[in-house]
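Task: encode each sequence below as structure tokens.

Item 1
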Amino acid sequence: MSNGFYGLRATLMTGVFLALLREPRAEGATRIAPADLGRVLGLDRAPEVKTLRRKLSELAAHGAGAQLQAALAAHHARTRPDAVGFLYLDGHVRVYTGARQLPKTHIARMRIAGPATEETWVTDTDGDPVMVITAPPSASLAAELARLLPDLRAMIGPDRPCTVVFDRGGYSPAVFTEILTAGFDLLTYYKGTWTRSEPDAFTFCDFTTPDGATVRYELAERTIDLAVPARPVTPAQPARPASTLTLRLIVRRSPSGHQAPILTNRTDLSAPLVAYRMANRWRQENYFKYAREHFALDALDSYADHPDDLDRLVPNPAKAHAHDQVAAAHAQVSAAHGDIAAAIDDASIAARQPGSGGRATVDPAPGRALIAANTDLAAAQDTSRATPSHLPLSAVRPGSRILETERKLLTHAIRMSAYNAESALARLLRPHYPRSEDEGRALLREAFTLPGNLQIIGATLHVRLDPASAPRRSRALAALAAELTATATRYPGTDLTIAYSVKGHDVA
């Protein structure tokens, strides 16, 4: 960074502390006293909004956001190796509500299509974020899976086994083959038509989760063969012949009778464990929900943008209109057939009337209408066939823009670090707080805002917090403080060892 009073450490730690104080955006610095936050940073005062924005822009200009994400992911894998045996991948859509012409995508939680930016997130077994990449517009999760495999392997190391877990958005037998070839295992839902399991194939299985809870699953199991299409040779990849991939199909039946088919190549896992690991995917969705509320996951941290790739192919709106015209022409043909049938019925009734001599003339108008409808249908079909399904973006939306991503990758890294720090504290707090599963994070949010004293005595920096809102909360925080003190952590850039305590709740 350029010479200045605030360096890299102060800038990043300011972002992390603001996030923990639930002011994750740079503008949040206006609501925190600079002198107070500066004391925690070891400075006279913390950077204010303008300075913080300028420093983040300077960092983003280096274009190293992806490298930072990869480094954080590798650090996560080293420090929590037990949590990266299963990696959960999912796409996340950041909704955009401004005036720029951003590409539209499907927003699942809103059940509409709208301007948005797509991201691919990787979380660990506990749902804690590991890394995030910005996906190209309209990229499928299956394509992103194939693109991420080298990054995942670099993150966890060349020999460590790992199971990649994802939902139906990543379903592709061809991608499954690439995952297995790269040395990963897979776990996902089956997508497409399939034969339901017979009722007598299901058995009840009681399973104790790693958290100690007991759950009951109703499961059936068999194998399934998936057809893997051939792949032609490309400059990036060699050709691959068509083949068949055999996987385990574990079907979970709900009390309502719904059957959810789960695919995996893992033969060493029991069926209940497979069902549990697949259901664990919802922890990632819980992270998205929590981070949107508490860490401004979807905030627009930079207003900068740049032109979209005008050469990429996008759906042609005229093709959808042509399909509508064909459907309308089909409807006209069907209606004309109905009119002819009605005319024939009317003539039959007239022929049975007295004095008709058993004869009647069928109205020719419906026949002429049918000929015209068939002509219109043929013309609509010709027009549809002649209309290309995709066109270059320049011919559809020449003004399309894409939001700048580097600053967002940086702010994601800062907020992920804050969330993971909170998760680590929550794990330490769990043995000392009976309601930690329900209230642990709420207690930590209170702890981050508690007043206290900083005092240096000898080579020790004492951090003494005021009591919390309830004695049981203060006791839990005191026990957590004792655990943190036992780590003998040094304050960065000094020789001071940090000692934590809660006033009036000393832990022997």
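Item 2
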Amino acid sequence: MTAVELKAERKANPPLAMITLTVMLGLIMAIIDTSIVNVALNDMAGNLGSSVDEIGWVATGYILACVIVMPLNGWLTARFGRRNFYAACVALFTVASFMCGTATSVWQLVFYRVIQGLGGGALQPTAQAILFESYPPDKRAGAMAIFGLGAMVGPAIGPTLGGVIVDNYSWPLIFYINIPIGIAAFLMTLAYIRDPAYLKRDKSPVDVIGLALLTAGVASVQYVLERGQREDWFSSATIDVLTVVAVVSLVIFCFREWYDPRPLVDLKVFKSRAFAAGNVIGIITGFGLFGTALIIPLFLQNVLGFTATETGLVLLPGAIATAISMPIASRMVAKVDGRAMIAFGLLIFAASAWWMGNINQDAGYWNVFWPRAVQGFALGFLFVPLSTATLGEIERHRMANATGIYTLVRQLGGSLGIAILQFMQTRYQDNAYAALASGVTASNPADAQFLTQVQGGATQLYNLVMLNATVISYDMVLRLCAIVFVISMPLVLLLNWRRVPAPPGPGVAAD
């Protein structure tokens, strides 16, 4: 092969390593930005002069925009081409990151975060589709392990990085750090990402009604899950109205898309039993991953008094353990039934959540380190075989659509987990406080002595009872996570598993 032919071959078929690096840059940038702002909200509120409720929209607005774009991934890819669409999303995300750092009011920041979410929402499913299709079948488990490092480790790195930046610098830097990464990802996308040969551009008119139904439905669901606890659920007229909007819009949308020959979202991928079962398990894993990612930092900061940086460092062992287990899981896929690996991951995650449910107000770093590390190790055995089994039966031309749905379902599962666990934590805390306070009376000699001998005894006694009630509530919700994971284990039997062939050895020609 001549030098000219070799150059043409490399241009037509870029190295897998460069394709992987390109999509991982965009993926990690988007994933980290989902959680990095959470530790900076208080600083943002003080700097921008906003209330706690207003600053909460910085996180909520981003997620709302993400979930609207995720299910449209397949349609947008077909309409604009994979390279153009991915490059545009990276560019939009990068420019919006710069604008976020320059915001001078909370609503200006929220607006830029929504734009950032419109770009970031497509990066994760598109990256997964590119990796899954670019790698041969015998190496797809390894590709999913690489992808999982960003998808699973990113949420843990975000608070750590955010804590360091907020404690030592200023909050705009959490957005500015995206700029060099985004520029590199954009240029590499143009250089290394190609449209697959089977991809046919969709030039049909835009289904405006379907797009409106999807936007209204998904955004309403996410709003209810994100804001329900803050607005006291169905005692709020807004939550009532949006719940009805979500149900009506999504039901009509599903019927419309099922029978539409050119759907915005191809729901017929759910005819695959493996894809349907994988998405149900994806809801459970999202429930546990996002739910515990919220509960544990709240416990560390509200009960143990950890700073943002200390909280991030406590979460980091889980990310490191996941990074260790992912390559192990990807190699085991060729030798072990993936369903057994998923069941193992569910069981170990449940055990770690139950273990973490034993911590109290006297706990320290090492009390959280080990259960968190075990939890992170379990995620590798969950994500790699689950992604491989869920997407293994999907035709290549439907892959972008399938990964968009799969990512959306996992995100909604996480939002559902956060909503349920927040609700249960509040209820458990109220019940625990009522039970503990009922035993605190003036007729109790120990209580009477405390009230008379300690300055501000009544206030301190109240704080002590509330602290114990809070600890009980956090322990209860962590154990609830464990129970949910154990109950979900039979769902693994619904997955079809095809043994992934091992890569050919040296000197053996691949087919």
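Check on item 2: Residues 501-511 have pLDDT under 50 and may be disordered. The radius of gyration is 24 Å.
End of task.
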